[in-house]
Each structure stands twice: as C-alpha cells, then as structure tokens.
Amino acid sequence: MLHSMFSNHLPTFRHGIHPPQFKDDTKDKPIRHFPFAPVMVIPLAQHIGKPSVPVVREGQEVVRGQLLARADGFVSVPQHSPASGIIKKIGRVPGITGKMVPGIYLEPFPGSSQEVMEGRPVDVETATADDIIRAIQDAGIVGLGGAAFPTHVKLKIPEGKHADTLILNGAECEPYLTTDHRVMLEQAPDIMTGLRYLLKATGAPRAIIGVESNKPDAADNLRAHIPPDLPVTVELVEVKYPQGAEKMLITALLGREVPSGGLPIDVNAVVVNVATCAEVGRLLPRGRGIQERVITITGPGVEKKGNYWIPIGTPLRYVLEQAHAAPDINRVFLGGPMMGTAVSSLDIPITKGTSGVVAFRDAEAFARQNKIYPCIHCGACVEACPLFLNPSKLGILAKFKEYHAMASEYHLMDCFECGSCTYVCPSHIPLVQYFRMSKLVLRNEKAKKIHV
Amino acid sequence: MFRKTLEIGTSPHIISGNSTDTIMRNVVYALLPVAAYAVYVFGLAALLLLITALGACLLTEYMLNRWAGNPSPLNDWSVTITGLLYGLTLPPHLPLWMVFLGGVFGVAFGKFIFGGLGYNVFNPALVGRAFIQAAFPVAITTWMTPFTADRFAHIPSSTLTLPFLEPVYDITSGATPLALMKFEHHTTDVYQLVMGMTSGSTGETSALLIVLGGLYLIARRMMDWRIPVALLGAVYILSTFFHFIDPTRYPDGLFMLFSGGLMLGAIFMATDMVASPITHAGAALYGVLIGIMVYVIRVWGGLPEGVMYAILFGNAVSPHIDNFIRPRVYGTGKKRSLS
Amino acid sequence: MTETPLMPSANEAGSFKMFRAMVGIGIACALAIVATYQLTLPVITANKAEALEKAIFNVLPGAATRVNYRWNGRRFEKISPDIHGRDVIYVGLDKDNQLIGIAVEAGGQGFQDAIQLLYGFDPYKQHIVGFQVLESRETPGLGDKIDKDAAFKANFNALDARLNDESTRLAHPIVTVKHGAKTHPWEVDAITGATISSKAVGVILNNSVQYWAPLIHQHLDELKE
Amino acid sequence: MLILTALGALGGLTVVLALLLIIAYKKLQVKEDPRIDIVEEMLPHANCGACGYPGCRPFAEALVREEALPGKCTVSSDEGRQQIAAFLGVDVGASEKQVARLACGGGINVARNRARYQGLQSCEAASLVSGGGKECFWGCLGLGDCVDACDFDAIKLNAFHLPVINEDKCTACGDCVVACPKDLLSLHPVSHRLWINCKNLEAGDEILEECKVACTACGRCAMDAPDQMIVMKENLPVIDYRNYQDTTKPMERCPTGAIVYLHPQKGKITGPKARPVIRTSARTDAPT
Amino acid sequence: MQQKSPGKLQQFFHFPEGDGLATDEFIKGLWRENPVLVQVLGMCPTLAVTNSATNAIAMGLATLFVLVMSNVLVSSLRKVIPKQVRIATYILIIATFVTVADYVIQAISLEVHKALGAFIALIVVNCIILGRAEAFASKNTVWKSLMDGLGMGIGFTFALLLLGTVREILGNGTLFGFPFFPDSFQEWVIMILPGGGFFTLAFWLLFFNGMKARKKDNHTEVHPEKESVEEVYV
Amino acid sequence: MKTGNLWFIFINASLINNFVLAYFLGICPFLGVSGKLSTASRMGMAVTFVMLISSMAAYGIHAFLLWVDAPFLQLISYIVVIASTVQLVEMFIKKFSPTLFKALGIFLPLITTNCAILGLALFQTNKGYNFLESFVFALGAGLGFTLALVLMAGLREKLDFAEVPAIAKGTALTLLVAGILSLTFMGFAGLGG
Ligand SMILES: Cc1cc2nc3c(=O)[nH]c(=O)nc-3n(C[C@H](O)[C@H](O)[C@H](O)COP(=O)(O)O)c2cc1C
Ligand SMILES: Cc1cc2nc3c(=O)[nH]c(=O)nc-3n(C[C@H](O)[C@H](O)[C@H](O)COP(=O)(O)O)c2cc1C
Ligand SMILES: Cc1cc2nc3c(=O)[nH]c(=O)nc-3n(C[C@H](O)[C@H](O)[C@H](O)COP(=O)(O)O)c2cc1C
Ligand SMILES: Cc1cc2nc3c(=O)[nH]c(=O)nc-3n(C[C@H](O)[C@H](O)[C@H](O)CO)c2cc1C
Ligand code: SF4
Ligand code: SF4
Ligand code: SF4
Ligand code: SF4
Ligand code: FES
C-alpha cells in the first residue's frame, strides 16, 4: 500500500491488485543444482501445440541433452534428455490434467557425471533470422513465463507485420515466485546474449526489459551488464499484479493496448520472458537442447525453500522430498498462487512450463473455509480487472448458464484468467473458475454432437 | 511420506481478507452510535422502536429462509443493517405494530422474494418504510419533539397501540425542519440540525454521527465515497444556486444538506451496493440523479421530504445505469459501449 | 408436413361481403345504442338532477329549488336545468321562490389530482355558506378529510367573501392558514396532516369567488328573475 | 330524430371505415407466408403478450419460423397448441424411443478419489481442475451437471453419486449428453439393453485399484458374444448394435461387472462372476 | 337418443351428444383457465376498481354481461362475418354492449357509476372479451360460447371479488360498505392506493402458486441427499 | 399561465398520475412486454405514437359528436375510429417502411385494443382539454407509460438473474415490482402544482 503510493510515478496499467508478495523467503537464495531423481517422467507435450514424436526405443541408453523426441510440425518443439540414462518405457505418464498422457520414463545412471551433449552452435553474427528461429525450435525452447508457448512461433513475425520493440518480461508479479529475479541477478550475460539472438530473429530495433520496482537489484545488475552496442533499456514498473501479463506490460511500457483478440505483434511488440531469453543465450551458442530450468520451491509447507536448477521430468514427489516438505501438505500447485495449477497427484513431473512449486498446509487452505455469498455488487472485481471486464456480471451470467451472453456482450473470451477478481471478491465467488468453465463449455459446444 | 490425498482447486489459491459479512458487520458498527444517540434524544420510545424493527427483520429473514430450506442467513449481518436502518428512518413514537408490519414487509417483499442478499432490486429497508408511509400516512407524518423532559421514563401511548388500532397521541408533536420550511418558510439553524436537536425520524436527526459513521466506513474502504459525495454535492450545488436566485423561496445549501433524512440516506442507504450501479462512474451518476430528485421533490413537490422516494427511484434506474455505463474493455478501442 | 394447406378460399371474402357485414352490424349497433339511450335517458337525467340538487341544497341551506343560469359574457341567462358547464351557476330558491344563494362549481389541482367542488354563495351577505367536494382523488385518511372533517367544513359555514369598495375584487382574498392559526373570517383553518389539500381548497375557492362574486354582484337582478 | 342522427353518424362512420379498410386491404396488403395467417387464426388473438412476443401475429411469425414452440401461448387450450404443432409439423416423427445411457459404474463405493476437489460443485468446473480428482480419469465425477441439464427431471443421483436415468421420463433431448464433460452419456434406443458400463482406456488389473468395476480389457465378453457382436477397441469392448441380439451371455464371465444388462424393471444387472464385487463394495464401503 | 334430424333451434345451438350442457366450457373459466389468476388478462379493471367489494362485484357483473352477450352474438354471426373485417365488427359489437351496460348502470346507480369511472367504458378494451370472442366464440357454437362466456365472466368476477374483499377490509375497515372492524381500527390506506392493488394481486398469485407447489410437492419423491455420503479416498 | 398549465398537464400525466402505476391503464402490455429492455422501449415509443394519434382522433370525434348531438355514440366511435386508424397506420408503415414496421409496427395490433389508449381518449374528453392540452396530455401519458415500461424492463432483466423463489416467479414478482414502483412514483405527488 505504502509502497505503491511512493512508486506512483512508475509506469503501469489501470486497475489490478496488490496481493502480499511472500518473496522474502527465497529472493536472496542463489540458484542451486538439484539431484537427479531415480526415475524421470517426460511427457511428450510440455508445450502448447502438437506433442513431439519419440525417436528413441525402450531400453535405449541416452546421453544428457540427446534428442528424445522430435518436433511434429512448426507449432511443436523437440524434447531432449534431461539426464544420461536408460529409456525404461514409452507409454502413458501422469499429466497435470489428471489424464495419462504419452510420455517417456527415463532411469538416470546413478553416479554418472551427466556431461551435456554438445550440438551445432549458431553464431549470432552469421545466422539469418530464420536460422535463429529454427535453432530455437531445435533447442526445444518454450516460454518459461508460464504458458509454455513455443518461443520460435512467437518470434516468427507474420507477413505484413513488424516488431518495433522487443520486451523482456522481468516483472514476475506472482507472489512467492523468485525465479526470474534470480535469473536476472545471476544470468545477466546469458540474457544479453539471448537478446542479440532475439533482436535479430524479430528484427526489432530496440528492447526494453521491464522489471517490477521491488527488484531494484535485478534492474541494476541488468543495467550494469548491458553491452554498449545493444539497444536495450531497463525500466522499472509499478509493483502490481498482473504487471507481468504481456498485455499489461505492453501497456505500462509502451502505452499501447493490445486489441481484443489480438496478439502483441498487432501493436508491434514481442514479449519474451527473461528466463526464456537467458535460455536462448545459453543454449544457442552451444547448440544444446533444454534439459533443466530454474524453479522456485517455496510455500509454508516447504522447509528448504529456494531457487533450484531442476531437471525437466523430475517427479513432484521427489522434488518435495528433497525440499523437505511437511508431511501434512494439503495443496500443491505449480506456478504462483494467482495463476498456478493445483496438482491432484505428486507423481506428475516438472515440465518446461513449471516456474514454481508452492506447497500449502491445512492452515493455509483458506479457500475452503470461506463461505460463498451471493454477489453483492460491491464492484471490487470491476475495479480489479486489468482488462476492464465486469466480472460481477459475468459471474452472475455464468451461474445462470448464459454462456453466450457472456461471450457476446461481456467479452468473456478476453479474460486471461488472472484471478484478480476472485482475489478481491468479498463474497468469495469463484469467478475465475466460472469463467474457465464457461469458456470450456463454449469451446466444446460446437465440437460436441449427439451421437448414438 | 506425504499424505495421500491432496486438495485441488482452481487458482487463485490466495484471496484477500475481505469478506461480505465483515463489511456488513462494520456497517452495523458505524450505525450503532447513531442508534444510541437516537435513544438518548427520543428516549425509551426510540429504543423500543429500534428493537422491534430489528426483531421484525431478523425474524422474517429467519423464518422465511427456514421455510424455503436455505441455511440461516442471519450471520451475514445484512438483515441487521436492514432492521437498524429501517428503524432509524421511522418517527420515534410510531406504534410498534406498524413498525413490525413494515419490517416484515420490507424483508419479505423487498428482499426475500427477489432471492435474498444480493438479488434485491430495491433497498429493503426503504421498501418497508415506503409501505408504512403509504399505509399509515398520518402516523408516519406525526413527529415527536426531541429532548422532552421525561422521555426516558415515559413510553408514549401511541407506541404501545394495540395491533391494528389507530394510535392516540399523548406527546408533544413538532414539525420537522423541512415541514417548517415548506409550509411556514421557516429555516432551522444548521447547528441545531447537526446536533440533532430537531424533530424527525429516529436516526436522521444527528447529522454529525452519521457523517462520522460514513467516514469510518470510507476509511476502511467498505463504502464507495462517490455516491454520498455526488449526492450531497448535487443537492448542495442546486440549493446554493437557487438560493442565490431567490433566497426567500429557496433554502440555502447547508440547511438542505443537514435537514431531513438526506445524510442518513446519502451515507447509509444510497450506498447499499446491492441496488446501486457497479462502476465508479455509474455510482457518481446515480448519486447525482438521486440528489437532483431529492431537491426537486423537496422544493417543488407536495411532500416536504423526498429522500426515500429518490433512492427507490435511483434503485429502479440503476440497472439502466449499469447497462449504459460499462467499463470500456481493454483493447476494444471504443470509448464507451452503449446499450 | 409436406404440403402446406392453402388459405381456405371460403375466407377470401369479396369486398361487398365485407362492406355489408360491417355496415350492417354498424347500423344494428346504432339502433341498439339509441334504444338503450332512449330507454335510460329519463332515469339517468332524473338521477343526475337529483344528485346535483342534493349537492346544491347541501351547500345552500334552506334552498328548495334551483335554476340554472349561464353567463354569456354580457349577462346571465336562464337555461334548462340539465345544461351544465364551466359557465353555469345554480341559483337556489327557497319555498317562496326567493333567491337565497348561488351554488357554483369550481375545480383545481389538489395533492394527487384535480379536485372538483361545489360551494354555496350568499350574495346578500357576501359569504360562502356551504361547501362540498364533488370529486377528488386525495389520499384517503389525509386529503379526503376536506370532505369529511367536520371542523374543516365548518370553515365554510360563513366564510367572508366581501367585495372591495369598487366591487371588482374580494376585499380580502380567501387564504388557507395553518391549523389553529385562523384569526380572520376570510381565512380557512387547514387540517393538520393535509395542509396541501386544504390549501388547494382555499386556492380553488379564491379563484372562483374572485371571478364570480363581482359578476353576481353586478347582475344580481338578472338572477332574481 | 335521434335515431336518424345515430344512424347517420354511426352508419356513415362504418361506411367510411369499411371502405377505407377494404381499400387498404386491397392496396396495402403485403405478401407473407400464408401459414402465418393460418397459425394466427389458430391462436387465441388475446394479443396479451404473455408469449413474450408483442402480440399474436409476431408470435405466429415466430412459430412459422420455428423460433418458438406453441406451448409458449398460455391462453390457448391444449388442443389448440397441439393443432398448431400438428399443422407446422413440429412434432416428432414415429421412431423408436431413445434414452440417455451412462457409461460408468464407478460410484463412490467402488471408485476412488485421488484428490479432494474444492470449488464449484459442477462436473464441468471440476473436470478442469486436474480432471476432477477422481482416480479414474474417464469416470463420472458425480457432481450432477447432467441432473441440472435435464429439463424433464429424468436424472437423479443415487446414493453413490452416480446418475440414474429414468427411462420413462427421458425424452432423448440430449441436453445431458452435451452437459457431461467426461462424455459419459449418449443416446440409445431403449432396446439396446446390453451395455458397456465403463469408459477407461487402461488395460490390466492395476486399474482395479482405481475402480473395482472397471473394464480390465480381458476380452472375455468379446469372445462370448455371438456373431462378433462385441469387438475390443482401444482396450474397451464395443457392442456393434447393428447386429444386436438381446442376450446376457457376453456378461456371464465378466470379472468386474463392466458389462451390464439394463433390465427395464430391475435396473442394472451384472453377470454372476461380478456380483460379489458389487455386493461387497456396496456392503462394506457404502455408508448408510 | 332420437335419430330424428335436429330442429332449427337445436341446430342453432347444436348440443353436442356427449357433454350436452358443455359444462366443461363453463367450469374451465372458473378456475383452470381463470382469466385473471391463470391467464393474467384484463388486469386493468382487476386492479383499478377493486378498492371495494361493491365495485368489484359491479365491475364483474358488467363484464360478465358484456362477455356473455358478445360471445353469443359473435358466435351466431360467425358465419356471416368475413375474416378481414372480423376484429372491427367484434369491436363494434362489444362497444355496443358496453355502451348499453354503461347507461344501465348509470340508470341504476350514479354512485356506482362514478366509482367505476372510466373503467366501465374500458370494458371495451378488456383483453378477455375480445380474446374470448376471437379465440372461442368465433369458432364455437352459440351454446358453448354462452357457457364459455358465463364461466369466464364468473371466474373474472370471482377474482375481482377476492381482491376487492381484501382491499376493502384492510383499506377501509369495511366490507360491502358495512363496518367490518370496530371504530378504532387503523385503515391501511395503501390498500386502496394503486400500490395496494398490485400487492394484493401479487399476494393472491403467490398464495395460489404456493398451494399448487404444495400439491406437487406431495407427489415428488425425495432424492438421496448429496452431502450425506462420505467419499472414499485412496 | 397557459404554458404553466401545459407543463403541469404533462408532469401530471407522466409522473404523478402515471397511466400504469397510478391509473392502472395498459397493465396487460406492461406485464407482457416489459421482459426485455429493447422490446419495452420500442413498445413505449409505439404507444406514445398511437396515443398522439388517438388523442387527435378523439378530439375530432368529440367535436363532431357535439355537433350532431349524439353523446351516446362517444364510446363506440372512439374505439372504432382509433382501432381503424391504428390499423391503417400499421398497414401503411408495413407497406412503406419495413424497418420502421419491425421496430414499432409489430406492436400496433397489441396496442389498438388497449385500455391506455381508450382511457386517454376518455380522460381527455372528461377533463375538457382543448386540442393543445390534449396533445400534451397524450404526450405525457405516452412518455410516462414508456418510463414505467422501461424501468420495469430494466428491473426484470436484472431479476432474470436472481434466485427468485419458485412460487414468486413470473407475474407475481412483476406485480410486486410494479407495486414498489407505484409507491416510488407517489413521491412525485404535488409536483408542478
Ligand atoms: C496461434 C498463435 C500465434 C501466436 N503468435 C504470436 C505472435 O505472433 N507474437 C507473439 O508475441 N505471441 C504470439 N502468440 C503467443 C501469445 O500471444 C501468448 O504469448 C501466449 O499464448 C502466452 O501468453 P502469456 O502467458 O500471457 O500469456 C501466439 C499464440 C498463438 C496461439
Ligand atoms: C495474469 C498473467 C500474469 C503473468 N505474469 C507473468 C510474470 O509475472 N512473468 C512472466 O514472465 N510472465 C507472466 N505472464 C506471461 C506473459 O503474459 C507472457 O506470456 C510471457 O511473458 C511471455 O514470455 P514467454 O513466452 O517467454 O514465457 C503472465 C500472464 C498472465 C496472463
Ligand atoms: C402517502 C402520503 C399521502 C399523502 N396524501 C396527502 C393528501 O392527500 N393531502 C395532503 O394535504 N397531504 C397529504 N400528505 C401529507 C403531506 O405531506 C402533508 O400535507 C404535510 O406533511 C404537511 O402536513 P402538516 O399539516 O402536518 O404540516 C400525504 C403524505 C403521504 C406520505
Ligand atoms: C454501505 C452499506 C449500506 C447499506 N444500506 C442498506 C440499506 O439502506 N438498507 C438495507 O436494507 N440494507 C443495507 N445494507 C445491507 C445490505 O446490503 C442489504 O441488506 C441488502 O440490500 C440485502 O440484500 C447496506 C450495506 C452496506 C455495506
Ligand atoms: S480473471 Fe478475467 S475477469 Fe477476472 S480480473 Fe482477471 S481478466 Fe478480469
Ligand atoms: S467482487 Fe464479488 S461481490 Fe463484489 S461485485 Fe464482484 S463478484 Fe460481486
Ligand atoms: S437431459 Fe434429455 S436426454 Fe438426458 S436424461 Fe434428460 S431428457 Fe433424457
Ligand atoms: S455423468 Fe457426467 S455430468 Fe453426470 S455426474 Fe457424471 S460426470 Fe457429471
Ligand atoms: S385490461 Fe388493460 S391492458 Fe389489458
């Protein structure tokens, strides 16, 4: 509260909320490496798009960084082996949706040095934009900001459009999470290298790194590392959720509004998460594939809170055991508390899109005790929604199953499920859940046919 | 090692500490000083009246929801506000049976019938009062003089009138400042108004305590300040303007602000979020609209006071305000989407 | 259903048939109405006259018969007893056919809707001598007391309506004052809780008397005929 | 005299109006679907607006456009409404009665939950949260979206939170089919009584950990079925209803009761092998 | 039954074999298809003139008269009126009977006429009358139309009386003008004001809906309570 | 004085003695067509339009009947003339402006046989309004009707999404809201007087 009053001059967007940060526990913890689990679980669809296709057999021995599955088309990325080991099984693995999904079980060799396989490097000076984009795809890079959207797709500027600004998203507005913060502190050179690739790939003449003002150390560190020839600036933005959403960041930094239903490129911007950029800067010069990522493990249920390099495919159970989670953890979710997904089983693995693991115990499970009252039209949600929707009306319509009116009159499809409305609602109405469900119903409606 | 069943639910996994029942409870806190002062000013009659009003509302809410098979809604405190506010808008010595009847009507037909908390389109307390005003216009326009000497010991005969019978008055009745203004062109001193030394409804007389209660709620962000500010502002500007044109016909702004039920209405009743527009701009428009109507009824209408009617009218208009003033959705470019 | 039945051709009536049906029924209706009118007219006229006379005799104590007069702009002319209108007044005569007063209808806005009333005027004493509400939609229990409240009606047993020296206007306009504040014979003592309706009565009376009293005063002889 | 005036006035009026109307009809008539007139004729002409349309004619137009159903008119009699329905041919043709069928037997007595779901009590909403917390991903969530969807009160949840369809009340409107996020409901002719009561695609006995009545893909039913009536597809038996025979033979050897016979009176019948499974689970786990 | 061909009069009235008196046409208007309580028609007089039971009865009877007469006339003329001028002629017929009723009431009692005010004349546009003429009389025999008119008319009167009684008792302390309560009774003025009309009718509708719902409740079985069953976890 | 009187007639007809909420005229369309805001507002405009037409027609007929001295034909000629005029107008609009017909015309048959229209004609005659006064009266009554209808429609649209107890759904609830609106309009009493 006080903070936002003093930082009022900082660029930001309208509305939004100020949830408590909970970042102090981990923001000063340097990134540390994590041991390999006895069995790794590697789903073939860790990204948005088509699942990748296995190129290995059961029983085959693989080396860390080796290609396990190739991309199936443009909107797809390959999978690389997170460890040297043996392929135990290719079949169904538990997925975050609760469904068994196609995947690979890998048993790492105990005690192996886990050398990473080197590939064909891409030189930023000589490579063309298309080369870089192809290399990013080959590296299996997806957005590490949470959505796991294949980065190369995003970098491919459509015909007739151009990018005038590349925005690096270092906002990290989610409470609890500190991965991007640590990455900006520890991997500034990688970020700068990555930026060169990204600027070339998109053809953007300049880049802005947007950092929330609660991470001044990160901003200073980045500024210190900017090479003189790179057209990059670092800008502080107000601490406010969801400052890190690409639309909000674009509005804060450029003063432009991404049109409803449109993409950042429609306002000549491309937004990439800082960790994604660092990954590009680290992998491309060596031609490697992605095998691990930085994750914040935190929450009241975790004892050894911290930021870790965790190999992709490490089962959650193993992660929590290593982090000394309390035995009575009650709710575990991947990502931050505002947007993260609660898991129903600890057998599911860490994937490329996982930015944090937060565990709550019974005491923190507030949502359960809160009685749901009818909407009292207090307007708090309307004042919180960063997209200026009317969540109150949408919630009431959803309750009465008026999904079409929600979409046609109240812009349901624009809602990016940030959860600000649910956070502030004094009646504890599960607004976001209503909206997710409504969107699903609308999407399914056309697909479903009555069949005998 | 870990317990086997996790809990799953959708994000967000944390929520703010605000809660509907907390908000409602705080409104009750803000109203208590007003009620206590009313008892001080009007004595036992006011106490009995408030208890009856509260009892009628709570009982109706409880019984109806029991009958409908809903869990008891009393712990959300909203009906407590209804009961208190309803009582505070009535003349202090109104027969208790009328008080009870209006409370039952207000909650049953102003709230329950629409689906209870959150669904009522009119302010339940005012529906109850409007019913009583139309049913017993004589009783509700007879006012008691404040600070009568034996007010505590004495229970006015009208208060205890047997159900369904016509009240007989044994109190000194006094005209309200607005009636004096309207029918005798006599303006009451603002100091007296602020301190609640005038005739009027049980809770409307002390403007000071009402304002303090409102400030408390605004400070705790449990009330939208736009509605009272817009409403009072509209009344003040209009009255100052007309007073400037013809001071003999039109009373001055301060008098208008502090007389009658305006303060209570503007701060506690027009702000009932359930029946008012949801956006900030809408709330401001709503306040201005009610303010204008209050002024029009008071100055040109037949009745000396119009706050209740103005707020009810505002309630009726608020769906339209919500329809017209919609937030401009991010990225849609249009300034305001009409209709 | 595969085939759509065509419009039944029997319904496709010719213009003449339509014409015949409408005009035929119209004429039949006219006959029926006229018949009823003729049959009920005497009773209705009698009823109306009776009701009006009752009202007139009520506001003109002692009257036994009445005569209708119309002001035609220059003088009063005697007209048939079933003609009414804005410019008609009723002259009340006692058993000896002596003019004892004049009943006048007046109307104006009350609290809720228009109020129509009838008052008796004594042209000799220049007093209002009686008052009755013919029509009002005032609130029952409040505004409708103007016709029920004995104390209020007592105002009009001898309400001063004297003309000024030039006989052009009332010497003192009739006004309604707050309950209990009546000090002059030309003031109307209002009903508590119904001040607005009481004031309306005062205003209606004042407007009407201001108009008629000078006329009656100047043309009293015509009315005495 | 009076009579003459009256006749003159009213007669004249009617003459003028009749002429005007007739001319107007001739000159201003707008060609429209003739059925509108006929349907309007069948409506009560109360022009009351109760149907939600501003009058009988607009309602008739809506009926002809098949935007509304005759039942909306509150004034008309039952026969009147039927007459209109019959005229417009909006009634259903004669075909075999269909009903909704549920392909899951995993009530809370036999199927396990892996996580405790908190949130909106709706299957659709729960299915979005890690599939809803049920151990079997395919299974019924038991939160009753189908019950809410049914306008005919044909579905109830039983004590084990499994929907039960009342075949008499079901009109095969298909609303529940659309509502179920797990696609467990489908419409079938009532005569299809042999029924695969499971949708899980896993094979092997491990699945029994999740749900005691799950299909383990052992394939016995397919072997026992006459004329290749049942084939195994994706670890599930599929009944080919085109050459359906009304027999209980295929379910005799089913070890779990994943294939059932839907008896019109007795309800779901399982084969003898599976009966103990059902019985014990019903006895031990079922709370009162 | 006689096999003789029916006589002229019988042909005119056309008694159907099964339900010779068309009792159903009569009964349905009283309750099942009550014009006010079920069909929600003719609301204006229902609300406007029911501030006393006397007015309610008078209005009900006047409407009954017009309804029966116009039903009978419309149905007997149904063959000769071409479709195109149907409405116009029905209105003519109805207006005539209303004028007749208007004058008759004036002749009987000026006071009642004054109390009902314009609403006597407004019977012309009461949706029930034209509605029945169109929906029923123009398609049915004279006898059936007569019964229909009687049933609907009495049903209408009954509904009016329900309102009138409540409003007069509470609003004026009297019933049919006779004191119902002791003198000291405090009248509920609202009941004779417009608001009271709306509320009373709403109240009666709620009452009847409640009765209907209770009847239905007795027939529906109770489902197993969702919450009463504990779930099984791994 | 003259304009003041017109203003007063207008306020009186639209607010104080609102046709629907105080005089109980046109309740059927008020209950029937107030479910949707778009319909309600167009209906209101159509009613206002027809009120203006019939007010003028009634003024003419009244003069005519006075002239031929046949007061007993008042009712029948009012209704017949109004009904036919509206029907003619309807056909006219339908023929020449299908869009206007879609917007307003479809309401016309519902309005023809409606208490509010005939009531207006009868009231203006009873009150002895002159032509201009009649016109203002009709305008006020029509706009007042529209106001009531539109307010009601807004509330009902909101109440579509309320958990109304089953027994109150439908007409009962609408009547209750109308009752409360009618109480609200009592606040206008005495305005303009
Ligand atoms: C078909 C498709 C095309 C996309 N194209 C672009 C693009 O051209 N530029 C871009 O910045 N993002 C693009 N995106 C990515 C989205 O804008 C967005 O970054 C991604 O869904 C994750 O967003 P973040 O988590 O807010 O939300 C595309 C997404 C999809 C589904
Ligand atoms: C509500 C919301 C909050 C978000 N918060 C962040 C954030 O704090 N940091 C971040 O990097 N991305 C955040 N994102 C994702 C961004 O919109 C965007 O997808 C991402 O920055 C693009 O980079 P990536 O594709 O490299 O992940 C958020 C998205 C949404 C919808
Ligand atoms: C519902 C209601 C109806 C009223 N009806 C009338 C009425 O018909 N006539 C009237 O003069 N006052 C009526 N009033 C009361 C006026 O406001 C009253 O004249 C005013 O309070 C002045 O009263 P006083 O005589 O005590 O000064 C009514 C008040 C209410 C609340
Ligand atoms: C600021 C505020 C003002 C309120 N004012 C009223 C009021 O005037 N009347 C009332 O019945 N309830 C009032 N309530 C309580 C609550 O909103 C009300 O009972 C709902 O209208 C019932 O659905 C108020 C609540 C708040 C928070
Ligand atoms: S979840 Fe959707 S509706 Fe709610 S605040 Fe975020 S964008 Fe707005
Ligand atoms: S925050 Fe909750 S209670 Fe307030 S308006 Fe929004 S949905 Fe309604
Ligand atoms: S929703 Fe339709 S198909 Fe499903 S059970 Fe009900 S009636 Fe049958
Ligand atoms: S069948 Fe489908 S909709 Fe019905 S309860 Fe089960 S999961 Fe829900
Ligand atoms: S009775 Fe008045 S509109 Fe139907």
Question: How would you describe this structure to a colleague?
Answer:
The complex is a heterohexamer of chains A (452), B (339), C (225), D (288), E (234) and F (193). Chain D has 288 residues and is α+β, with helices and mostly antiparallel strands. Chain D folds into two domains: 35-88, Orthogonal Bundle (3-methyladenine DNA Glycosylase II, Chain A, domain 3), CATH 1.10.15; 98-269, Alpha-Beta Plaits (2-Layer Sandwich), CATH 3.30.70. Chain D is 31% helix and 14% strand. Chain D is elongated, with a radius of gyration of 29 Å. The termini of chain D are far apart. By secondary structure, chain E is mostly helical. Chain E has a two-stranded antiparallel sheet with strand order 1-2. In chain E, helix 4 (53-76) packs parallel to helix 7 (127-137) and helix 8 (142-172) packs across helix 9. Chain E is globular, with a radius of gyration of 23 Å. Chain F has 193 residues and is mainly α. Chain F has one domain (16-186). Chain F is built from nine helices and no strands. In chain F, helix 3 runs antiparallel to helix 8 and helix 8 (131-159) crosses helix 9 (171-185). Chain F starts with a helix and ends in an 8-residue tail after the last helix. Chains A and D meet through strand 16 and helix 15 of A and helix 5 and strand 5 of D. The complex binds flavin mononucleotide (3 copies), riboflavin, iron/sulfur cluster (4 copies) and FE2/S2 (inorganic) cluster. Riboflavin (RBF) binds next to helix 1, helix 3, helix 5 and helix 12 of chain B.
Secondary structure: elements and pairs:
The complex is a heterohexamer of chains A (452), B (339), C (225), D (288), E (234) and F (193).
Chain C: H1 15-59, E1 65-71, E2 76-79, E3 88-93, E4 99-109, E5 114-122, E6 127-135, H2 150-154, E7 159-160, E8 175-177, E9 187-189, H3 195-218, H4 220-224
Parallel strand pairs in C: 8-9
Antiparallel strand pairs in C: 1-2, 1-3, 3-4, 4-5, 5-6, 6-7
Chain D: H1 2-28, H2 34-42, H3 56-64, H4 78-88, E1 98-102, E2 115-117, H5 123-127, H6 145-149, E3 155-157, E4 163-165, H7 175-179, E5 185-189, E6 194-196, H8 207-210, H9 220-224, E7 230-233, E8 236-239, E9 259-263, E10 267-270, H10 275-284
Antiparallel strand pairs in D: 1-5, 3-4, 6-9, 7-8, 9-10
Helix pairs in contact in D: 2-3
Chain E: H1 8-13, H2 23-30, H3 43-48, H4 53-76, H5 86-108, H6 110-116, H7 127-137, H8 142-172, E1 174-175, E2 178-179, H9 194-217
Antiparallel strand pairs in E: 1-2
The complex binds flavin mononucleotide (FMN) (3 copies), riboflavin (RBF), iron/sulfur cluster (4 copies) and FE2/S2 (inorganic) cluster.
The largest pleated sheet of chain D is described as: 3 strands, antiparallel
Poorly predicted tracts of residues of chain D: 283-288
Order of strands side by side in the largest beta sheet of chain D?
6-9-10
CATH topology of the domain at 2-28 and 120-286 in chain A: Rossmann fold
CATH superfamily of the domain at 2-28 and 120-286 in chain A: NADH-ubiquinone oxidoreductase 51kDa subunit
Uncertain segments of chain A of ≥5 residues (pLDDT<50)? 1-7
Radius of gyration of chain A: 22 Å
Architecture (CATH level 2) name of the domain at 2-28 and 120-286 in chain A: 3-Layer(aba) Sandwich
Mean pLDDT of chain A comes to 90
Portion of residues in beta strands of chain A equals 15-25%
CATH architecture of the largest domain in chain D: 2-Layer Sandwich
